[in-house]
Amino acid sequence: MAISLTQSAAERIRSFLDRDGGVGLRLGVKKTGCSGWAYTVELADEILADDVVFEQEAVKVVVTSGSLAFLDGSVIDFVAEGLGSSFQFNNPNVTDECGCGESFTIG
Predict the structure, then answer these.
(1) Using one digit for the tens of pLDDT, what is the confidence trace for 33-57?
(2) What is the spatial order of strands in the sheet that 84-90 belongs to?
(3) Mean pLDDT of all residues in 22-26
(4) Which letter, b or e, does each residue of 84-96 get, where b requires 16 or more Cβ atoms within 10 Å of its Cβ?
(5) Which of 62, 72, 75, 101 lies 20 to 30 Å from 56, alpha-carbon distance?
(6) What are the helix (H) ranges across 5-96?
(7) By C-alpha distance, which of 57, 45, 81 is closest to 3?
(8) Does position 23 have pLDDT exceeding 80, yes or no?
């Protein structure tokens, strides 16, 4: 099982960690939205016993073991377009997304 970061995502996460502190980026999923699931993204203050940690480009990605099956194989990118910027997930487990792009289905 693995989650990976593009260089752009790793650089952006490092800038957040340098500014705000923390041990890494915490990723997860929660039930919500019109398609069932949404990503959760926040800085991790600590690594808990049931967390799985991936490290790439000197950045730790922390995932709770319960979310790992939903995120396995994902590539996280950071994209700046015009005046906006965001993290984007390329998740091979997603079978459908809602029209607004805020939630997804895993089949």
Answers:
(1) 676 888 899 999 999 999 999 999 9
(2) 4-5, 75-81, 84-90
(3) 96
(4) eeebebebebbee
(5) 101
(6) 7-20, 65-71
(7) 57
(8) yes
